[in-house]
Amino acid sequence: MEKKYSLKFLPLFDRVLVERCAAETVTKGGIMIPEKAQGKVLQATVVAVGSGARGKDGEIHPVSVKVGEKVLLPEYGGTKIVLEDKDYYLFRDGDILGKYLD
Asked: Phi-psi region for residue 72, left (φ > 0), alpha (ψ -120 to 50) or beta?
């Protein structure tokens, strides 16, 4: 079931708003992982996308990801935004490393 997002925020140009996935707290073997050992989660779900960047030719180049897709983020970067008491991150389209295929 696809999650619907109803935020009152729309990124501009080639920006992508993502929500990081929850960190794994238990290993497959059932061992609890402490918070300090979990590390940063690099997988996220796209929540909103901008219209695209304007190229040198003046045409708009659309963003390469769509709402609902799972993407791989860089370890550092992005701008943290709090909307409706939840943490979201804003990245440029070119900063996203890749997307997961189903």
From this structure: beta
